[in-house]
Amino acid sequence: MRTVYLDYNATTPLDPAVRAAMMPFLEGVYGNPSSIHRVGRQARALLDEARDQVAGLFRCRPSEVIFTSGGTESSNLAIAGTARLLRDKGRHIITSAVEHHAVLHTCDYLERREGFAVTRLPVDAGGRVDPEDVAKALRPDTILVSVMAANNEVGTVQPVAEIGRVCRARGVLFHTDAVQWFGKVACDDIHALEADLVSFCGHKIHGPKGIGGLFIRSPLHPDPLLFGGAHENERRAGTENLAGIAGLAAALVNFVRIPVFDAGWIVPLRDRLRAGLEQLPGVTLRGDRQACLSNTVACTVAGTDSIAVLAGLDMESVCASSGSACSSGSLEPSHVLKAMGVSHEEANALVRFSLGRETTVEEIDHALGVLPGILGRCRR
């Protein structure tokens, strides 16, 4: 049996067309876009072209698209940069308890080291934030709200547009981490998210790793995290990763407006996996069953822990995850499940399957076929 890869929320294979878009920058186009000679000007023109492509997709100004090293840096810049910019107006930030650690740890740092106050909103049993809770948490000194568009661990989709409208009505900036959202939910316009700052990256949508971006609604200018040059409209210093940017632009253009995770064919596979898991004793599905990503199935397994189950799956050539790939080596229980009211023991037994465009019925059936034996061995 070939490897069954069911961890697309962690990363995706590089698409051939995206690779082709990157190749000129790995071979002949080697200039620094900041150089004034003809080789540098060629690189600058291609960088501008890639930015125009992304802006055209998002229907925003090219100056509102900032390229970064990935989703983590994008969220760090959005939150820390905005908080530091507006600290004289207020020091209160609102986020949710189920955010990616790129958001939570940034808020923790600002609270611990820079004197900000952070409100972490609760979620319901499905992992959803109530927009009314956002409205109630707003204070005169609130300067920023950050709620993710879709959860990476359980796949729950948040009512970000509604939350964004609540924030705008009160004059508070809104950031959303849309790393897991793009490519899975159709997007014709970045403004549909009703956000002032939107984080995204390449490797979740068959683009390259190490590249991401941040939409920053004009005229907002967050304080930079990196210093050294006037790159990216003075928002992010450092020579641009042209090959990565070309790949990111190609992935966004090819796979966002018409999602690469096509619900039409992936939902039946997801539902087949859900139905099979529900037949297994001690297995409980997690996340909102309606407001959810089309490709994500999360569950907990009673009587064991995620590491044992994932090791057993790996022995049977099935790749899955315990949640965020950034913390897959951690023995800590899922903070997302704990926020959803799941017990400490069960939160330590999260298994996430995330499907992609190469997933087949045979692969789903193989995973379901080997799971009973794996769970029996783990419990013994």
Kindly describe this structure.
This protein is α/β, with parallel strands linked by helices and 380 residues long. The chain has two domains: 4-12 and 261-379, Aspartate Aminotransferase, domain 1; 16-255, Type I PLP-dependent aspartate aminotransferase-like (Major domain) (Aspartate Aminotransferase, domain 2, 3-Layer(aba) Sandwich). It contains 13 helices and twelve strands. Helix 4 (101-113) links the parallel strand 3 (92-96) and strand 4 (117-121). Helix 3 (71-85) packs parallel to helix 4 (101-113), helix 5 (131-137) packs parallel to helix 6 (160-169) and helix 9 (263-278) runs parallel beside helix 13 (361-379). The protein is globular. The protein starts with a strand and ends with a helix. The mean pLDDT is 95.
Keyphrases for this structure?
380 residues, 13 helices, Aspartate Aminotransferase, domain 1, 2 domains, 3-stranded antiparallel sheet, 7-stranded mixed sheet, globular, alpha/beta, Aspartate Aminotransferase, domain 2
Strand and helix layout:
Layout: E1 4-5, H1 16-26, H2 38-58, E2 65-68, H3 71-85, E3 92-96, H4 101-113, E4 117-121, H5 131-137, E5 142-146, H6 160-169, E6 173-177, E7 197-201, E8 212-216, H7 231-234, H8 242-255, H9 263-278, E9 283-286, E10 296-301, H10 306-315, E11 318-319, H11 335-339, H12 344-347, E12 350-354, H13 361-379
Parallel strand pairs: 1-11, 3-4, 3-5, 5-6, 6-7
Antiparallel strand pairs: 2-8, 7-8, 9-10, 10-12
Helix pairs in contact: 1-8, 2-8, 3-4, 5-6, 9-13, 10-13
